[in-house]
């Protein structure tokens, strides 16, 4: 293939013809513009330029293999790089760029989870902050997540010799110093240049478990490699284990390939996300996309084929990739049978939002469920995980203690973890606080965030009157407000 001149690439800078350079190769992405799950605007902004640096924030290089056949035009002529266009002017003022020389408080000044958000907001580009903080529709789901932790009160016991506190908890037999773990979050390359491996290093140093997202910037094997290296540095002393969050590829063969790859890499459990058959309406992202589209001269961006969730020509092609965030609207409970054949480790359904599905998951023999509404990013006016837990306590209490039950969404104080555990949860997932800590301080921030939560947790235990987590009981909390508001069947039944 002949070399392509930078001046020629620079000419193809519109939606009629859009070329970009990635890792010294020139690609014609014109036919891919409307198929790109991240939108056409971001590609058009890079049209005629070397997009390698921007691309690496979001994707592993292997993504180029998923471009339509014939997209590769050849290698860029290295002597003509100066003729390339520079990316279109950033018309949206970033909050600030992600350079590390920005003034942010010293990490020790972060003493609560919200402090990490303030620090992250100061360093993250606007697009990244919107991606992280965003939620669905009018924001009522995320509001319920945040509020409901405060709608349960403790019922502390006193004079109980609480000098010696043990906060340990196991997840599928893997002990951790804490009953909380880092939730899976995609595209961490847009949050910190070290992306997922940087988060992993912080987790390993503190012994916290972490669930890795299918939509990670770095591949599943590379992330596991960073885990192995950090463990080695610590003489394999860290109890941290990595689990894998699984967005099911639409194509069965690719779905199986991905599962095998994840298993071989050493992930300890599969957390299948079931609350995202299609992407929720991420309102703040939509405003931004519209602004970006206008800035590059597309009046209105149609939802990409992938986003619309209909028959989907793109997703199957992405299926076998190590890291790709595709959603399959076709998954049903029946799929669990073949998944079980391919994956012999623990399986958790992530995104259970009512007692009926919790019971079904139990009947289908799942190892665990995660009560979650995806951090308020999927369905509008979703129940909080605590509300769903109260529903389970009321309508199918028999499943509590028989399978591992996790909750996530809106946890911002370590002592709140105790409320979920009193009501029967195994552990709590924490998302954004870790993401913000990573954004502002890298792995050091992740460590600090673990410390903040752990200290609040341990203090909370002493003040509640317990010394170990197995002493927690439902009567140690007053959950009446949530219990009063749970769903009631129209015809009275006491069990599902
Ligand atoms: C060249 C081939 C490309 C392919 C096959 C591709 C594929 C994808 C896929 C599958 C997603 C969905 C989420 C995920 O898996 O992470 C996505 C999202 C995204 N992509 Fe690309 N992409 C390409 C190029 C680019 C380039 C050049 C950029 C930036 C310069 C970019 C920026 C983004 C962004 C910002 C998102 C949204 C991330 C999010 O909100 O989660 N992509 N892309
Ligand atoms: C920026 C961001 C990205 C996320 N990406 C994923 C993902 O790729 N897969 C997934 O199952 N959940 C994802 N989630 C949801 C989290 O796993 C978790 O359910 C949620 O963040 C918990 O709420 P919290 O952020 O309020 O703690 C994401 C959440 C955020 C904030």
Automatic annotation (TrEMBL):
Keyword line:
Heme, Iron, Metal-binding, Oxidoreductase
One Pfam family of this chain: FMN_dh
Under the heading SUPFAM superfamilies, the entry gives: Cytochrome b5-like heme/steroid binding domain, FMN-linked oxidoreductases
Q: Which residues form a coiled coil?
A: none
Describe the location of the FMN hydroxy acid dehydrogenase domain by residue ranges.
105-482
**Is this entry keyworded Oxidoreductase?**
yes
Write down the InterPro entries for this protein, in alphabetical order: Aldolase_TIM, Cyt_B5-like_heme/steroid-bd, Cyt_B5-like_heme/steroid_sf, Cyt_B5_heme-BS, FMN-dep_DH, FMN_HAD, FMN_hydac_DH_AS, L-MDH/L-LDH_FMN-bd
What are its cofactors?
FMN
Single GO molecular-function term? oxidoreductase activity
Locate the Cytochrome b5 heme-binding domain: which residues? 1-77
What does the similarity note say?
Belongs to the cytochrome b5 family.
PANTHER family to which the protein is assigned, alphabetical: CYTOCHROME B2, MITOCHONDRIAL-RELATED, S -2-HYDROXY-ACID OXIDASE-RELATED
Name of the molecule in the record = Mitochondrial cytochrome-like protein b2
